[in-house]
Specification:
alpha/beta; 7 helices; 33% helix; five-stranded antiparallel β-sheet; 2 domains
């Protein structure tokens, strides 16, 4: 049973599903549960929770489920509560006839499943970036027209390769919460995607970046204006991408881009 519980917790982490572990860490007097009993509560905001394991059932478990749901229902902010500890008298606090008391520790295991990154292009720089992002709690979708480059991506449950006939085909599938990077083969393939994004969701993505130089940024701005994008949105993207350090080596570009993504994410969580 112990191994099954741990294996389930590991699987949930690998699937980037949020869950709460509720563990009875102490008991006193007459109680319907043994010390060490625990349960997993799986689910998120608006979802009906799934229970795995038990801490005794009845009113005690119902109260524990209530507290677990509160933890799971938080918004994904940096200062979200991740651990809570309760000491309950079963008669006065829970409404049971038992006269004992229990102490229950709650821990929220909440990966950054809400932090989704979409990378258009699976070339050398994107490959280096994806290898780095596998070490960070995020979900990465990589879109490319070339199967052979998608096949080179690191094997990870956090990375989803998507083969398309045209990069622009994927724009309709973007969500406004996603961080988007355009790292395709060059201006001729980056620009049409950027135009489509700005026409579909101008200024609404938390991060939109295009790999390239300041000169490329000027050309992209001209393309957006020519496509009828409002001037205030024609500069609403990062180009060059990444923080200003390092060389043009793919590995160093990856570090600077990941650092910028983390900076933007943390600023949003604190706002």
């Amino acid at each position: 049973m112990k191994e099954d519980f741990l294996e389930t917790a590991l699987r949930l982490r690998q699937e980037h599903k949020p869950f709460v572990v509720a563990t009875v860490v102490d008991t006193t007097g007459s109680v319907p549960v043994e010390m060490g009993a625990r349960m997993l509560v799986v689910g998120g905001r608006g979802a009906e929770p799934e229970l795995i394991g038990t801490i005794g059932g009845g009113k005690l478990e119902a109260r524990a489920l209530q507290e677990a749901r509160r933890l799971l229902g938080q918004k994904p902010q940096k200062d979200a509560v991740r651990q809570k500890f309760f000491s309950w008298r079963l008669d006065s606090d829970i409404g049971m006839t038992c006269g004992g008391s229990v102490k229950v520790y709650f821990e929220l295991v909440w990966e950054a499943q809400n932090w989704q990154i979409v990378v258009f292009g699976a070339g050398h720089c994107a490959q280096a970036l994806c290898r780095l992002l596998t070490q960070i709690d995020c979900l990465v979708t990589v879109v490319d027209t070339r199967r052979e480059w998608l096949d080179r991506l690191p094997e990870s449950s956090a990375i989803t390769p998507v083969l398309v006939n045209d990069y622009g085909d994927y724009v309709a599938r973007l969500e406004e919460s996603q961080y988007v990077l355009l790292m395709t083969m060059g201006h001729s393939t980056d620009s049409p995607v950027l135009v489509k994004i700005m026409q579909a969701m101008p200024g609404r993505l938390p991060y939109l970046g295009v790999i390239g130089s300041k000169a490329k940024a000027a050309r992209l701005k001209a393309d957006l204006l020519a496509a009828g994008v409002e001037p205030r949105y024609a500069e609403a993207f990062h180009c060059p991408i990444g923080l200003p350090f390092g060389t043009n080596a793919p590995g160093e570009i990856a570090v600077s881009v990941a650092a910028q993504l983390l900076s933007v994410r943390d600023a949003a969580l604190q706002s």
